[in-house]
Design goal:
mainly alpha; 2 domains; transmembrane
Length: about 170
Amino acid sequence: MHADLLSGFVVALALIPESIAFSIIEDVDPKAGLYSSFIIPIIIAFAGGRPAMISAATGAMSLVMVTLVKDHGLQYLLAASVLTGIIQILIGLFKLGYLMRFISRSVVTGFINSLAILMFIAQLSEFKGADIEMYILTALGLGIIYFHIYLYLENLLCLHSFGLLLLHY
């Protein structure tokens, strides 16, 4: 029970800024994002889920739906989201998940990378008229991220070299 409460608290803290950010990307009122981040986990709690299942708004959906919201309004976002859920339920009922094996890893990687690029481009408008402190903090955040990636790759290379050394002897 204690672990469930702690995990629920951590997820709630992560979902609040994420849902507001996705709302800003979609150019919708942040209240809509907060409502979705509250309603989706409640539905999943009653419908059931899996241990590794993501039950929150995703960047992929927010980037795909941004054009829909701008062209047709918020009403169509709800309809498209419900239709997406129905399609996912049908895929699950007919056990069509095995078809994902036919999508190559490079296609999935390209899709994820394009989402990252689109999210970055969507946030560029927030840089207009900002103070120098924001640029410094952004550069510091990117520096921390790239430093951790560098350390990870360096450790991976050391482990790989050590493994080759062991195989040689």
